[in-house]
Amino acid sequence: MSAKSSLVVVANRLPVDRVTGPDGSVTWRRSPGGLVTAMQPVLSTQRGTWIGWLGDTSPHGAPAPEPFQLEDFRLRPVPLTSEEVTRYYEGFSNSSLWPLYHDAVEPALFKRRWWDAYQRVNQRFAEAAAEEAADGATVWVQDYQLQLVPDLLRQMRPDLRIGFFLHIPFPPFELFMQLPRRAEVMRGLLGADLVGFQRPLGTRNFVNLARHVLDLKTHGNTVLLEDGRKVVADAFPISIDVAEIERLAQSAEVQARAKQIRTDLGDPKTLILGVDRLDYTKGIERRFKAFRELLSEGRLSVPDTVMVQVATPSRERVEHYQSLRNKVEREVGRINGEYGQVGVPAVHYLHQSYNRAELTALYCAADVMVVTPLRDGMNLVAKEYVAARIDDRGTLVLSEFAGAIDELRQAFACNPHDLDGLKQTLLRAVRAPEAEVRRRMRMMRRHLRAHDVERWAASFLTALGGDNHTQLQNSRF
Ligand code: GDG
After folding, report:
1. pLDDT in tens, 100-148
2. SS3 219
3. Is there an atom of ligand 1 within 6 Å of 377 CB?
4. Over the stretch 397-444, which tens digit does the pLDDT of each residue have?
5. Full 3-state SS string of 38-60
6. Which band of pLDDT confidence, cut at 50, 70 and 90, is reported for residue 467?
7. Conformation bin of residue 261: beta by default, left when phi > 0, alpha when psi is -120 to 50
8. Which domains, from first to last, does the chain contain?
9. C-alpha–C-alpha distance, residues 422 and 416, integer Å
10. How far, in Å, CA of 421 to CA of 425, rounded?
11. Angle of helix 149-156 relative to helix 182-189, nearest 10 degrees?
12. Closest ligand 1 atom to 33 CA
């Protein structure tokens, strides 16, 4: 066995984007993202390895691409066939687990062959981790696509410290019990020493389910397994690279671009912004409906107020996402048809991906940011918007169903299911007096600066590795 790294990160995707040269040659560039930024310092000091999929497909039985070095990282690709992408990724992960874990806002679909692929692919990731990890190493497994990895890995390598972090909500008993393979999923997660969630609610749901699905003893946040091993569950709210966003927001280019965006929009009094992956959990339709009703009642009007909605393309081969796109685009057409003017649409809808600088310029240009998910693990967009507001201006309308609401207490909180309430909140955010706007934004920025993504990673790894942690567990029984 080639035991190498004292820290291994296992995630569905490697943190790289494919770059195709003019001659057709393929190279890889580090993709921007909070997780990779947070992990970089620890990975580089600990000869770390990141295991994940490159995002392409390989023919069945083809040899796995060789591990490679990218900047400070060692990357170990895990190959997937196109059938596995369909069944493991688009199927079980994104058509069964994703909707079920998000309050079943769309019905979760289950197919037995999806589960078989999910198991097979989780086994492959676990084997790769077992090969890469040094004796007694720490392995940190990420997210819902890989919930079986902790236990599979523990069976192969009982010497490892294994952590798992779930980026999305962990559902309550009533929903989780629908999962045909609920016991296997719980067993998979319980292979970890530490299971992390975004919110305390996820922790509570998990500990409850360990009791009810597997009949295990629990004490506070700790689950006691039959063999005496203890698993701790806890909340570790994820964050963003605050310094990086502030640096972008301070740059002359981004500031000039923010001005230009407002000019291009006809210098509206109020620019309302939404930025989301085009996903049915994000409540995009709810906010359009609220905006349309406010326009129809004359409480907002074009061209004084315009809305920009970035809807980044996502999971386009999954059926729920295709029908969502149709519904959203029909609604945009309806709003613009009824309330737009020549040269001034009411909603500027952008079904495209942008670079970080352009996103930051949009955050800086906005007066009101609307983040209205029906359920969301955290929502980093809300945090990025706050970090970008180095001028202490701009208001944030934030759903009570996003994990971020626990920390961004000065946002204008809304229940996106309550349309009248959402309209009221949106109006309050549009009309908030400047002194109040600044006070709210200042407090949220202060919180974020003290709680960035580096701190998140450090607190998880400390909890996973620290002796204190083990002592704490032992003292509870
Ligand atoms: C999952 C959980 C949890 C968006 N459009 C573009 C772009 N983005 C970036 C945003 C932000 C990220 O994507 C989206 O993060 P969110 O947190 O908002 O949502 P999910 O993708 O659903 O993430 C979520 C998160 O994991 C982390 O744990 O917060 O609850 O669902 O960073 O800026 N980035 C670029 N171009 C775009 O067009 N470059």
Report:
1. 999 999 999 999 999 999 999 999 999 999 999 999 999 999 999 999 9
2. strand
3. yes
4. 999 999 999 999 999 999 999 999 999 999 999 999 999 999 999 999
5. HHHHHHHHCCCEEEEECCCCCCC
6. very low
7. alpha
8. 5-238+454-473 (3.40.50.2000), 242-450 (3.40.50.2000)
9. 6
10. 6
11. 60
12. 32
Residue of 314, 380, 448 best suited for mutating to test ligand 1, as the one with most atoms within 8 Å of CB: 380
Alpha carbon distance 97, 176 (integer Å) = 9
Q: In angstroms, rounded to a whole number, what is the distance separating the alpha carbons of residues 146 and 324?
A: 26
Reported in sequence order, the residue ranges of 166-267 that DSSP labels E, i.e. its strands, are 194-197, 217-219, 222-224, 230-235
3-29 as b/e: b if 16+ CB within 10 A? ebbbbbbbbbbbbbeeeeeeeeeeebe
- Provide the b/e sequence for 160-184 (b: ≥16 CB within 10 Å): bbbbbbbbbbbbeeebbeebebbeb
Q: Which atom of ligand 1 lies at the shortest distance from residue 403's CA?
A: 30
* Catalytic positions: 167, 376
| Any ligand 1 atom below 6 A from CB of 30 | no
Residue nearest to atom 36 of ligand 1 (CA): 354
387 CB within 6 A, ligand 1: no
* Residue entry with tokens 């964050």: 239
Number of CB atoms found within 10 A of residue 449's CB: 13
Q: Can you give the pLDDT at residue 474?
A: 39
Say yes or no: CB of residue 336 within 6 Å of ligand 1: no
The CA 239 to ligand 1 mean position distance, Å, reads: 11
For residue 34, the ligand 1 atom closest to its alpha carbon is: 32
Q: Coil, strand, or helix at residue 74? A: strand
Q: Alpha helices, DSSP H only, in 16-103?
A: 34-45, 82-84, 98-101
Instruction: Encode 115-137 in three state secondary structure.
Output: HHHHHHHHHHHHHHHHHHEEEEE
Q: In angstroms, what is the C-alpha Rg of the chain?
A: 23
Atom of ligand 1 nearest to the CA of 282: 22
